[in-house]
Design goal:
With about 400 residues, the protein is of the alpha/beta class. It contains 16 helices and 14 strands. The termini are far apart. The relative contact order is 0.16.
């Protein structure tokens, strides 16, 4: 780690050492540079910061609490804590950057927000932000995910968003990104593409991370206040990686705090049965940036799968890719079966139904607690599971 980490990474071209950057058509690059300039100037202004802080306190309900899982800790060992992003307005961490991006769009004079969504949480959050600021909203979503995440589709429509079904390829998150990018390129003067994670061309990996840093800042202060010390480990799920970068950011320079990013190993580690990008991926290019990528022999993104729609992406944030190379974060996996077990365990031991994405982090944390019964573990519970309950019960049934 270096001093002034957040000023040095990314560099002025958007690189986290070998990863990131912006590899997009010249016309779109010109627009990205406008967004970058606006972000560096507008987002540092007193008015912008004051308005965003007011939104977070009076509209989003921040700070979200840190909660000690007494029954789960007694059963599995260790001292297990949750950063309750499921209690953030709209039910996940996504609103942290959506309100920031929408506020930036307002200052830029944009009229429309365009985005992709997998699990629907980013779509709901952006539709919420659009309603708050009086902007149009268009959400692209794979047809497979539309069926899996029906409650969130209804929520987006109630909030006034136009939901565009994506019917090509695997009809999931990667294709939704492709579709949303295409729509944005047709109308980039009046709209802004609000990427849903720490991915995409510069400046989005930086912007989304910065807006999500509030999670780590709160969690670190709250944990110290509750326990008088820092956690031994911090655990978060990783698809694109926004919730993980949000909480990891506060602990990157704390050498005694171990950081774990948990990605889906799905049904197996065979091609198309998982989305374990950090475990099995290699450096490659996707959606205008360089990162670790699951790819075929031709260098094209390979098919991916996860029980959690928000994690089935073949790439990952460029900052995560750098942190993997630095060995600052350990990237681990959780299977579908482990995830479903953790989904029900947290629900029945603590009365908290997690999102399937977050349940991956819970699953790994439970294994960690067994291995380290004297240590404290802070999990970023990035979202609640309302959106997943029908799918889980219909697909896996209720445990006895």
């Amino acid at each position: 780690m270096t001093t002034n980490y957040f000023k040095n990474y990314p560099n002025h071209e958007g690189f986290f050492e070998d990863y990131g950057g912006s590899f997009i058509p010249p016309q779109l690059q010109t627009e990205m540079e406008k967004i970058t300039d606006a972000y560096y100037s507008i987002s540092k202004s007193h008015n912008f910061i004051s308005e965003l802080r007011s939104i977070r306190k009076h509209y989003q309900g921040r700070p979200t609490p840190v909660y000690f899982c007494n029954r789960l800790s007694t059963k599995y060992g260790g001292r297990i804590y949750l950063k309750r992003e499921d209690l953030n307005h709209t039910g996940a961490h996504k609103l942290n950057h959506c309100m920031g991006e929408a506020l930036l769009a307002k200052y830029l004079g944009k009229k429309k927000l365009i985005a992709e969504t997998g699990a629907g949480q980013h779509g709901v959050a952006l539709a919420t932000a659009a309603a708050y600021f009086g902007l149009e909203c268009e959400i692209h979503m794979g047809e497979v995910d539309i069926i899996k995440e029906h409650p969130n589709v209804v929520r987006m429509k109630i909030l006034g968003a136009k939901v565009v079904p994506v019917s090509f390829g695997l009809k999931t998150l990667k294709e939704a990104v492709d579709s949303a990018f295409g729509a944005y390129m047709q109308d980039f003067e009046n709209s802004i593409y609000c990427i849903g994670s720490v991915v995409g061309p510069h400046p989005f990996p930086m912007m989304v991370r910065d807006f999500q840093r509030v999670v780590g800042i709160e969690a670190k202060e709250q944990f110290l206040d509750m326990t008088g010390e820092l956690p031994d480990s911090v655990v978060a799920c990783v698809g694109g990686g926004s919730n993980a970068m949000g909480i990891f950011s506060a602990f990157l320079e704390e050498k005694d705090v171990k950081l774990y990013g948990v990605e889906p190993s799905g049904r197996s580690l065979n091609l198309g049965d998982h989305a374990a990008t950090m475990t099995l991926g290699t450096p490659g290019m996707i959606h205008g940036f360089k990162c670790y990528l699951l790819q075929d022999e031709k260098g094209e993104p390979s098919p991916v799968y996860s029980v959690a729609s928000g994690l089935d992406y073949p790439g990952v944030g460029p900052e995560h890719s750098m942190l993997k190379d630095w060995k600052r974060v350990s990237y681990e996996t959780a299977t579908d079966d482990e995830t479903i077990d953790a989904f029900y365990e947290l629900s029945r031991q603590e009365g908290i139904i997690p999102a399937l994405e977050s349940a991956h982090a819970v699953a790994y944390a439970l294994k960690l607690a067994k291995q380290n019964p004297r240590e404290s573990i802070l999990i970023n519970l990035s979202g609640r599971g309302d959106k997943d309950i029908d799918f889980v019960v219909d697909t896996f049934g209720l445990p006895e």
